[in-house]
Amino acid sequence: MSAETTTLTRRAGLALGLCAAASPWLPGFASAAPLAYTLAPIEIAPRVWTIYGAPEPITRANGGAIANITILDTGDGAVLIDAGPSHRYGTALKALAERLTGKPVVRVYLTHLHADHVLGATAFEAGTVSGGPALRGDLKRAGTDLTNGMYRVAGDWMRGTGVPEPGRVAEGGVETIGERRFRILPLAGHTREDLCLFEERSGLLFPGDLVFLDRAATTPDADPERWRGALTTLAEIDHSLLIPGHGPVEAGRRGIDQTRRWLDTVEARIGEGFARGLDVTELMEAPLPDWTDGLAVARYEFARSVMHLLPGLERRDLPRLAPA
Fold first, then answer.
1. pTM value surpassing 0.90
2. Which fold would CATH assign to domain 10-317?
3. By the 8 A CB rule, do 72 and 199 touch?
4. Considering just the CA atoms, what is the radius of gyration of the chain in Å?
5. Residue range 53-108, pLDDT digits in tens
6. What residues does each domain of the chain span?
7. Whole-angstrom distance, CA of residue 154 vs CA of residue 133
8. Residue 311 — very low, low, confident or very high, per pLDDT cuts 50/70/90?
């Protein structure tokens, strides 16, 4: 959603604008007032629930609720991994977490800057919201553009949403909350700062949007080489379940391998097309391998990736014209 420089550039704005294209209406997300998110938690482990995001782009129909959000019960209170796309979502999430656990929310970990994960944090007390060292500064610089872009795409779902101000900094190391031990791993690649959490007692791995499963990965702020390095780190963690930022919860490393394969495919297709002299429109229409047929929104995300990644190739390989 945000650009590499944490401003909403013209190209990134166009990419976000694509989200407003018409798509099939998603049951459970009413478009008529009053708007209300239907949160359907699935228990993935004892006292741990995931709310699956819609495998779609952000639209007015789904209110931006496309990311996975997880609630963990601890002896000290509820812990959330990410907060959803809007204040309205965050309010519903807070009520759900308190109902499921019978306790207040004591921590909300934000994995990275993107709107579908962080803007719901405005519904929580700042002192419970925790993000990586760079997140607060990134939100101050880019938060208004991020929020405005979501208002344009999702409309009235965003009513009351402002820019979150995390009150806690999630440094690398271990944070103990109740009986749970969260190992915090500062990584990068999907964005310039991606927070991964590993709950050591249950073996649950939360890589945020470093891992997508059965949905094409998004690349608005991607550094593919750093992303591959992060995936290598994640693959070395002996986990019981992996909860991706988008897609089904599974044991094993299928999501890690699939995300790497998508990055390799996208870079190869864009690089080959650029070398052949294809323009942006021609590149967007380039064929994708058959294996991507099983990924939600693959064609859509490939088109966005052309806009995100092609400028880097142009800057690197096209000659600069001398001033007249």
1. no
2. Metallo-beta-lactamase; Chain A (3.60.15)
3. yes
4. 19
5. 999 999 999 999 999 999 999 999 999 999 999 999 999 999 999 999 999 999 99
6. 10-317
7. 29
8. confident
